[in-house]
Amino acid sequence: MIFLLAFLFAQTGSFATVNGLHMYYEIHGAGQPLVLIHGGGSTIQTSFGRILPALTKDHEVIAVELQAHGHSDNRDGRPTTFEQDADDVAALLQRLHIGKADIFGFSNGGTTAFQIAIRHPELVRRLVIASSMYKRGGSPPAFWAGFAHATLDQMPKVYQEAFLKIRPDSSALQTMFEQDRQRMEHFKDIPDSVIASIQAPALIMMGDKDVITPEHAVEMYRRLPHARLAIFPGGHGAYIGEVMSGDAAPALPVIEEFLNAQ
User: Fold this and answer.
1) pLDDT at res. 65
2) Helix 108-119 to helix 82-95 angle, to the nearest 10 degrees?
3) Left, alpha or beta for 178 (phi > 0: left; psi -120 to 50: alpha)?
4) Is the per-residue pLDDT at 29 higher than 80?
5) Which residue, 82, 140, 178, 235, has most beta carbons within 10 Å?
6) Class assignment of domain 2-260?
7) Alpha helices of the chain — where are they, by DSSP H?
8) What are the structural domain ranges in the chain?
9) Burial (CB count within 10 angstroms: exposed 0-12, middle 13-18, buried 19+), residue 206
10) pTM for this structure?
11) Which residues contact 4 (CB under 8 A, 6 or more apart)?
């Protein structure tokens, strides 16, 4: 029921042409700007639908859908990269005349959030990095081995259905899946020194049964100059009520406390 209400809450949005991409975004609430960046193969609703209404109480939430995901188009079909996604989000903020925002990225969106902080530090007030990594060593070898031969039928049905409900085009779904698969297959580490140069306060979050190892979460916490760390019971995104988990979102008070800190 909570997810259904959140889904109905966010049915309308807008498009902006940024770097040749027709990017879909939604704006809800008022207050300090907060950008939500979804995970790979996902949409605004599958990643954030259960917590989006609560976040709008104190924030102007700008939720985006990245290249080939959800409502956004595939530009000219070039491969997706975390760097390009970061530049697209930055260009959108500039179009919206938002000078500085909190950036909240989940899973692949967290790696994009890192790239925003690296490439456009002037736009970032605070960072929330959820279930994400900046190097291949952040996940077990078996995680990476799976991308070489991954097929669309292995993608959870809930993600496929969410995409097709927005865009009933099976070829677009296949393209999005293949672009995400190739990006992860060829994932490149961000140098430790670059992560250490990020000056924005950061909150690192993950589940204790996540695809990211707890050791990597601690490494990020230690590497970033101004970081906090929260590890919750459960799997990938369960602590924010991601669509593959239950309705509970135990991380919400932690997120709100961090974002509202002076």
Assistant:
1) 98
2) 70
3) alpha
4) yes
5) 82
6) alpha beta
7) 2-9, 44-48, 52-55, 82-95, 108-119, 141-145, 157-166, 170-185, 192-196, 214-223, 252-260
8) 2-260
9) buried
10) 0.94
11) none
Q: Count how many Cα atoms sit within 13 Å of the Cα of residue 228 in the half-sphere of its side chain.
A: 12
SS3 228: strand
CA 155 to the chain's CA centroid: 18
Report CA-CA distances (Å) from 203 to 27, 110, 151.
Answer: 23, 11, 33
**Chain centre distance of CA 86:** 11
Q: What are the backbone angles phi and psi of residue 53, rounded to the nearest 5°?
A: -60, -40
* Average pLDDT for the chain: 94
For residues 252 and 51, is the Cβ–Cβ distance under 8 A?
yes
3-state SS, residue 98: coil
Residue 12 predicted with pLDDT over 80: no
Whole-angstrom distance, CA of residue 67 vs CA of residue 169: 15
Coarse DSSP helix, strand, coil percentages of the chain, rounded to the nearest 5 percent: 45, 20, 35
DSSP state, residue 14: E
Could you tell me the CA-to-CA distances from 138 to 120, 123, 215 in Å, in that order? 24, 26, 8
